[in-house]
Amino acid sequence: LKFRVTLVASIALAALCLIGLPPTIDGAKILGIFPTTARSHYIVGSALMKELARRGHEVTVINPFPQKKPLNNYRDIDVSFSEDIMKNFMPNMLDLADQSVLESITKTYEFGHLITNQTLQHPNVRRLLNSNEKFDLVIMEAFLNDAHLGFAHHFKAPCVAVSTFGASRWTTEMVGTPSPISYIPHPFLRFTDRMSFVERIGNALTTIADMIAGAVLDFPVQSAMYEQAFPGPKPPLEHLRKHSVSLVLLNNHFSLSYPRPYVPNMIEVGGMHVNRKPKALPDDIKAILDGATDGVIYFSLGSNLQSRQLPVEKREAILRVFASLKQTVLWKWEDETLPNKPDNVIVKAWWPQDDILGHPNVRLFITHGGLLSTTESMYHGVPVIGIPVFGDQYLNMGKAERTGYGLLLPYKEITEERLATTIKKILTDSSYRTVAQSISARYRDQPQNPLDLA
Questions:
Q1: Number of structural domains, the chain?
Q2: What is the CATH number of the domain that holds 142?
Q3: Rounded to 5, what percent of the chain is helix, strand, coil?
Q4: Which end of the chain is more exposed for a tag (fewer CB within 10 A), N or C?
Q5: 454 in a domain, yes or no?
Q6: Largest alpha-carbon pair distance within the chain?
Q7: Residue 257 and residue 396: Cα distance in Å, rounded?
Q8: List of residues 6+ apart from 416 with CB closer than 8 A
C-alpha cells in the first residue's frame, strides 16, 4: 500500500512538473518577398506573414511598405523607394482603360520587369543576399517576377508562391494545374465560364497571345535578371519555375470565382486580409454611419487608381448623381477639397474600408472591382457596382453580374444618366442584396478560416 501511495505521488509530481514547463515552439525562419508597389498586393502578403510572426516564427519580409509599429519577430527589408516606380511608369492609372487587352498584357509584363529588377538590385536586398543568413522557407508573391525564384535556390529553402488574385498562367504552370480555355476565361477578360463560341475563340486567342508574349517578352528578361542577381552555379530559371515551388496559395474562394480544376498543392485561401473581428470605427465615422437613416453608399477606386485623376466631366457627372440621392455617400478622395461637393457627400483620403462595409447601414459599394474589394464586399454581404479599368477587375465584375450581386459599369461609359440608372437598379431591386448576403453566408461557412488553412 505504501508503495502504491508513493508511486501515485511520484506520478502526480511528475505531471505537475510537466504542466509547469513553458510551452515549446517549433519556430522557423521565413523569408517573405512581396515587393509589388500596389498596396493591395502587399495587404494579402502581410496578413499571412504577420500571422506567422504571431505564431512564433521569425519572419523577414522584402516589401515597399515597412511597418510603423513592427512586431518583435517581424523584420522589414525596406524597398520603399520602388513605390515611385508606379507613379513614373503610369502617372494616371485611369489611362489604362483606353488600352486593348493585348496592350494591357504587354504593359503588365513591363511593370513586372521594373519591380523585379528594382527589388533584386536594391542595396538592402543585396546586403541580405551577401549575408550568411539562412532561411527555412521562402514565401513569395507570384506576379510576373520569376527571377525571384532565385531566392529559394540561394537560401536552399522550399518555396511557397502566393497569388494575390486567383489562378493564372503565372501560377498554374508552377505546379502543373490544368487550365482548359474552353471554360476558364483569361483573367484580363470579362467572360464567364459559360462563353459563347465567339467568346471561346476570343479567349483562346488572348490566352495564346499571352503565352507567346510571356515566352518572347517576359521570360528572357526574367532569366537575364536571375543570372545577374544570383551569380555562380545554379539551375536554369525554367527548371526553378517547374520544380522549385512546393505550394501555391490563391487569394480566392469558390464563391467568388468559377469551378475549375486544381492540383492538390494549389489551395484557395481567399480573404486572409478580411477582419473576422472588425475593429471599432473611429468616433466620427461611426457617427456618420449610425446617423445615416437612409443608408450609406461607399465609393472607392482602390489603392492604385486615384479618384482625383478623374476627368472633370466624369467627376461632375458623378457629383450630380450623388447630389440627387437621399443616401449619404462616403468617397475615397485623395485631395483636401472636392469642388462642387454636395452636402450628402463626405470625402477622405483614407477610409477603414473593411470595417465600413461591415456596418449594417451600408447599402452599396461602388468599386473598381479589385479582388480584395470584392472579397470584402461579399464577406459583408454588400452589393457592388464595378467600374473596372485594368487587369482582373473585368473578370471579377463579370462574375458579379452573372451571379447577381453587382453590375458592371465600364469606365469609358460613365455618364450622369448611366450611373444614376445603375445605382437606382441596385438600390431598388432587393435581389442584389439577397444574393450578396447568400454568398456572404457561404463564404463565412468554412471549416477553417483562411489564415489557419494557409
A1: 2
A2: 3.40.50
A3: 50, 15, 35
A4: N
A5: no
A6: 95
A7: 8
A8: 317, 320, 321
Look up residue 151 and give its DSSP letter: H
Q: Are 336 and 236 members of one domain?
A: no
The range of the structural domain enclosing residue 211 comes to 29-268
204 lies in the same domain as 310: no
For the record, the C-alpha cell of 349 comes out as 483620403
Is residue 16 domain-resident?
no
184 vs 71 pLDDT, higher one: 184
Would you state the pLDDT for residue 67?
85
Q: Which of 210, 235, 268 is the last residue of a domain?
A: 268
Q: How confident is the model over 130-183, as pLDDT tens digits?
A: 999 999 999 999 988 999 999 999 999 999 999 988 888 889 999 999 999 999
Domain boundary among 244, 268, 292: 268
pTM of the predicted protein model: 0.85
Q: Are 217 and 109 in contact (CB under 8 A)?
A: yes
Query: Quick check: is 231 in a domain?
Result: yes
Q: Assess whether 183 and 208 both reside in one domain.
A: yes
The DSSP call for residue 22 is P
Cα distance between residue 256 and residue 397, in whole Å: 10
206 and 332 share one domain: no
Give the N- to C-terminal CA distance of the chain in Å, as an integer: 54
C-alpha gyration radius of the chain: 24
- The Cα 349–Cα 313 span in angstroms is 21
- Is there a single domain that holds both residue 261 and residue 370? no
Helices (H), 363-429: 371-379, 393-403, 416-428
Q: Which residue has the cell 529553402?
A: 157
Question: Do 297 and 255 share a structural domain?
Answer: no
| Mean pLDDT, all residues of the chain | 88
Same domain, 264 and 407: no
Nine cell digits for residue 354: 473593411
Residue 272: the pLDDT is 77
Crossing angle for the helix pair 101-121 and 197-213, to the nearest 10 degrees: 30
The CA distance from 187 to 379, in Å, is: 22
Q: Are residues 390 and 348 both part of a single domain? A: yes
Q: Can you give the CATH number for the domain in which 384 is found?
A: 3.40.50.2000
Q: How far apart are CA 97 and CA 339, in angstroms?
A: 24
Any residues with CB less than 8 A from the CB of 366 and at least 6 apart, and which? 297, 298, 299, 300, 384, 385, 387, 423
Grid cell at residue 58: 521569425
| CA atoms of 248 and 266, how far apart (whole Å) | 5
pLDDT digits (tens, 9 = 90+) for 32-91: 999 988 777 888 888 899 999 989 999 999 999 888 887 889 999 999 865 566 667 666
